[in-house]
Amino acid sequence: MEQRLESARFRYINEVLYTTSSGEAKRMFRQDPQAFSIYHRGFTAQVQRWPANPVDAIISYIRHKPASLVLADFGCGDCKIALSLKNKVHSFDLAPICDRVTVCDMANVPLKDGTVDIAVFCLSLMGTNLGDFLVEANRVLVMGGILKIAEVASRFENVRNFMGALSSLGFKLVTKDTENSHFYSFEFEKIAEASERVNAGGLELRPCLYKKR
């Protein structure tokens, strides 16, 4: 019974994260500190059912890059990227699962302009203002910096529109993998500063809602 209640709470928190703004989600976790732990346990249980975890592919990619590159992990969860690499990694999330997390709204991270070489969103483009996160990633990236995105495949209604929206935010597509049945991954390069006005068209992704088991 207790496990069923926690599963139900995980599904509720997950739905809130996808259907409200990051500011509202941050307030929820501030008012209910246990909520993030419940969400993280539920998310970890879901990960164990996947054929692969896309964060592992991102870690492998970065390992082939110089260790001097600075990373920003937007929505870092358990800080697996920071714990797996020698690079300096700024780990951002709405609540601290580990002591490396900087708690903040991903639409407003405490970094100066142009101080990051690689920005990562691994299954973390959640919330109704996800365009603000991508504008913020553009702000902290150096010109020519890399944006890595991995998301659940079923969230994409129109991949072409999504890539077009990223282009309008100052990013050029380098590579994409949309053949995987579970996850889509993208690599973009920052080629221009983003306008502060976000055109949400094309950036809207379906929420990833888990069924009752």
From TrEMBL:
InterPro entries membership: RRP8, RRP8_N, SAM-dependent_MTases_sf
GO cellular component: chromatin silencing complex; nucleolus; rDNA heterochromatin
Keyword entries, A-Z: Chromatin regulator, Methyltransferase, Nucleus, Repressor, rRNA processing, S-adenosyl-L-methionine, Transcription, Transcription regulation, Transferase
Source superkingdom: Eukaryota
UniProt EC number: 2.1.1.-
GO biological process, one term: rDNA heterochromatin formation
Primary location recorded for the protein, binned into one broad class: nucleus
GO molecular function: methyltransferase activity
Cell compartment(s), UniProt: Nucleus, Nucleolus
Recorded family membership: Belongs to the methyltransferase superfamily. RRP8 family.
Full protein name: Ribosomal RNA-processing protein 8
UniProt source species: Salvelinus namaycush
